[in-house]
């Protein structure tokens, strides 16, 4: 098995060590149902008033860092890992969604990026592709709520409510150390190696992945430049690789010319800006159809930037639509969302009277 390429590193400052240790102490005191989730009404209102609407430049904005040194992957206090961070390239795992509501499959994308081996769609034939499955070595993670969607109108939970639930999902991924059947990591040591604690949540004001990628790149560079590490170098020279988790349907839409004014130039811009795709196949989708999709002439040049995630069977079936139906009908599929999110959904009486297509 190939391993992630080594990068130049620099030592994290004592100031960051102290801040990270304090954050770890706070995390250790959290229980699953007692996490104090912030209210995001003011954040969402300000984001929409300032950054949303026609003519606005693509922008991603952090709402909360669950780890204070984000995107710098400072290890948790007491970790056996060497305290060092990449100096020239930062790999960010991004889960961009409408989160209506967030569920365990969203979380599994993040954990898979940190733990599971990914196979390049180019296979062994790709000029720059890995010859075998590879662990990417993600440095930081980002859950990103979109204020706009290319296909969907806003319904169900409000953006403010979704932002709170995104926070709860991030806490479930980054802070819950209790044994749980959905987690992919098998030990605390393995968890620490993934950098999953280095999590942030935020919003983005554009529905197109090419614009989201550019917005994330600028945001990461900004956060890096404002850190004690970034001040030692030029953040503008920092290479940011953003691995966007996508379902199979999202991958198909990504290469659909109808969403672009200048296809395939905008596709080229996405990958040139450091965009990468980590996709998962739809359950029951025939292998022949997958192979035929990747043989398309407008896709073949980008296969080295596309990776397959092997999601666990226990989460592959989950969708937000099915969760909303389960909440409405009080079926067992409500177990597909973390308990703290279900508690919030129930307290707000969300999804009770919605009509969904059968």
TrEMBL record:
Highest taxon of source: Eukaryota
Record-level Gene Ontology MF annotations: ATP hydrolysis activity; nicotinamide-nucleotide adenylyltransferase activity
Single GO cellular component term: nucleus
Cross-referenced InterPro entries: Rossmann-like_a/b/a_fold
Designated name of the protein: Nicotinamide-nucleotide adenylyltransferase
Naturally occurring in which organism (per UniProt): Coemansia spiralis
